[in-house]
Each structure stands twice: as structure tokens, then as C-alpha cells.
């Protein structure tokens, strides 16, 4: 590395994306880079990414973060999955857990053995075989040996940003307060040369990371890469968030409750609850959405409503010239499966693996853009599934969702499962087979057939397998402490349960 000069990396914007990037780069690269983050206290962040998925556990471990300290600083609770209410039909619900259900065979997932059991008269639901699901509904949690409990966090993203800022600055990140007034480009190459702040200060760099949110000041405002609109598939275009005081102990899962023009979220933290509504403005105006949200919240309101307008989609290039978009500047997928922070994390870790210490390689740029788009398309398809596979026809919104054309990639997944009970995933695809199975069956897609390997078991062997798995789950759940008690003890704070 001695042949290279110290590379100057400039992060435009703070918030969750900016400080996640700064913390990871500073801790990983150390003295090999000169890292500067520019943000303005006068510019607010969206700050509603409160629910996460299990890869964040790995991300924090990569940075050497103490989990107990992180949870204490961010008022986090544990999350075992998401409950979906009113999606298939009004009054029905299902659970998308983070764990495995049953025990897979190398040739076929557990759903095939469960379906064979149903054909043989076993009437236990698929849910009975999932540890995380049963623990969630019992309100229980603990770290188990061999990482047998798969989990994520429900956290205050603003506090998470502040926590990461402390880590990043301790590792050498230079924070500059100021509003970006101009993005300077080199005429010959079109690369970004510097950010010019309101007061005239110039921040020069070799590589720029755009974490300016929906404004996308660098990747779009200066470099004009374009945006692919996915509203046809995901028609919601507005959200409102509000925080309320807790009125009961926090449960270890997020709730996603469908309504006639979108859905609502409820996310319990140690000290409060996050509430929000996502809606399609074609069928529900902002005032009506706000009334619906406020009328459904519990506890004292702690914040004023935060109104967020968005267009679901992705930048046509996440990396262009010497600029990389991370977070909302690179695109937006609604938080139905809590993937916003995950997509930030994926972009940052991918950038670190491809970080140029000399000239930017166009091969790296092309590969980065291809992988980023693949990530977003795969998440997009999983979100579309929730809207498309529904029996609801009670409102114009749901009739539109049921009738819309969907990507061929999703049609293949749905029809393959419907005909054979199988789920095939591409390499490194985010959502595991069990995720697809739980959501597809929860949304009413029932396989017509199952793998013949399930029939190899005698009736007695099948009885023993299914009963043994159910018994193991039930015994483990019964041994777990209450979630809120465990969180309080683990974080070293007073019991977070509401009186």
C-alpha cells in the first residue's frame, strides 16, 4: 500500500447511513484513509428505521460492538420476526419468523414433511415447529447455545446514529458541521472534486459517499444518474411516523397491520413505541391517514407526526464516477420487511471489499452496481408478494394489488411453490427458504404436491419426527425468561416493563 497516497473519503450526510458508513470504514481501514463526514444539524433525518433483520447482529460484531452496550445506548429490544395482520384477509394473521421451522432434509425443506404429515392426519399447524415464532408469541427470549435463537433488534435509529458517531470519531473520523451548497465537478472527468459549504469552505476528496437521503445531492443532483420508478409494483407513496410512551412490556416482534389503503407498523422499544402508517395517496389522503394513525396509537404522544413522501425505486447507478450512494440516496423500498438498514449495511460492506486505493476500476463499479441492483430487486419481489398474494377485494387499493402484473422472477417463485412446494434461491439471496414458505403460506398460497422423500418415513417414524420437533420447541420456549426481564438484566438497566 506504500505506493498509494492516503485516500481521502468524504461522506455527505449523517443519520443512520452516514454514521454506519463512517464507523465501518474508520474501524476497518484505520490510517489507510482520511475520513471526513459532512452534516448539518439544521437538516433532519428520516429517522424511522426502527426495525431490523438478523444481519445487523453480524454487522455489529464485525465492528467489535458490545451488544449489551449497543442495546442500552439505542434503547433496543430483541426481535424474533414480524406479525402480519389482515394481509391475506381481514381478521387473519400470520408470522414471518427469523428462525428455521422444523428440520430440513438436504433434498427438501421441512414443509414437505409437514405436508405429508397433514395428509396422514397430523393437525398441528406449521407454526408449532418454529422456536422463534413460539417464543415471540409467548413474549420470551434468551441467547441460546450454538446461536439457536435467530434474532434482530428493534431500536431507535437516531440513537443508533449517535452511538456510531462516537465510535467513528474515536477511530479518527473528522466531522464537519455545515450545509452543502454546491458540488464541484472536474470538467474533464466529470468526477466530484469537492463539496462547497454555505460558508464557502471546500471539502476535497478522492471518493465521495452520498448519504444525503431522498435529496441525493451528489448521485442525482450533481451526477444525474436517473431513477427507476417501481410504484407499479409497490403503490404506497406516503408514510407518517409518531412515537408514543409504552403502556405495556415490549414484545419481541414487530407488527405490520394492513388497512384498506396500505398498512401500519408498531415497534416496541425499551422506553417507547414506534408507530407509523404507510399508505397510497391515490386512495387515502394525508389528513385521513394521520387521523387513522393517531386514533390507533396507545400511550402519550412523545413526538409530532413526521410526514414522509416517497417514490419506491432505485437509482440506475449506485456507484457512478467517484460517488457511491448509500441508503435512501440510492433508492427506497418501504419498510415492510425491515430491510432499510440492511441495504445500507450491504452497500457499506460491499464498498469496503471493493474500496479503490488507486484509480477507480470500472469493473468494480459495474460489479457493485449489478450486485446492489440484484439485492434491491430480490427484496422488492419479496415485498410485492405480500400485496399480490391476497384474498382481499374489499377496497380499490387491494383490488389493484391483486390484479397488478408482477415481475417474471416473482411469478416463477410463486408458481413453483404452488405446484411443487419448492423454493429455490439464488446465491446470497437475503430471504431464506423458510421466509418464503412462511409468507407464501401465510398469504394463502398452498402447494399442490410435496417431495417424495417425505414418504420414505414410516407412519411411526413420521409421528416420532413431528412430535419430537414440537416437543423440543415447547420445552425450549418454556425454559426462556420473559423478554422484557431479560432485556433489562442483559442491558444492566431497570426493568423496562411499563407499570
Structure characterization notes:
The protein is α+β, with helices and mostly antiparallel strands and 499 residues long. The chain has 14 helices and 21 strands. The protein has helices spanning 15-29, 55-62, 67-74, 110-119, 131-138, 157-170, 286-296, 340-353, 362-388, 396-403, 408-420, 433-442, 459-479, 483-491, and strands at residues 7-12, 33-39, 77-79, 81-85, 93-97, 152-154, 174-177, 180-185, 192-197, 202-204, 207-210, 227-229, 238-245, 254-259, 262-268, 272-279, 306-309, 313-315, 319-320, 323-325, 331-332. The chain has a 7-stranded mixed sheet. Strands 7-2-1-11-20-19 form a 6-stranded mixed sheet. It has a 3-stranded antiparallel sheet with strand order 8-9-10, with no helix packed on it. It is globular.
Uncertain segments? none
- As a whole number of angstroms, the C-alpha radius of gyration is 23 Å
**What is the helix content?**
25-40%
Query: Spatial order of the strands in the main sheet?
Result: 5-4-14-15-16-13-17
* Overall 3D shape: globular
Give the overall average pLDDT.
Answer: 95
Distance between the ends: 58 Å
Number of helices: 14
Strand content: 15-25%
Largest sheet: 7 strands, mixed
Question: What is the tally of beta strands?
Answer: 21
Q: How would you classify the helix and strand content by structural class? A: alpha+beta
Could you give the topology of this structure?
Elements: E1 7-12, H1 15-29, E2 33-39, H2 55-62, H3 67-74, E3 77-79, E4 81-85, E5 93-97, H4 110-119, H5 131-138, E6 152-154, H6 157-170, E7 174-177, E8 180-185, E9 192-197, E10 202-204, E11 207-210, E12 227-229, E13 238-245, E14 254-259, E15 262-268, E16 272-279, H7 286-296, E17 306-309, E18 313-315, E19 319-320, E20 323-325, E21 331-332, H8 340-353, H9 362-388, H10 396-403, H11 408-420, H12 433-442, H13 459-479, H14 483-491
Parallel strand pairs: 1-2, 1-11, 2-7, 4-14, 11-20
Antiparallel strand pairs: 3-6, 4-5, 8-9, 9-10, 12-18, 13-16, 13-17, 14-15, 15-16, 18-21, 19-20
Helix pairs in contact: 1-6, 1-8, 5-13, 8-9
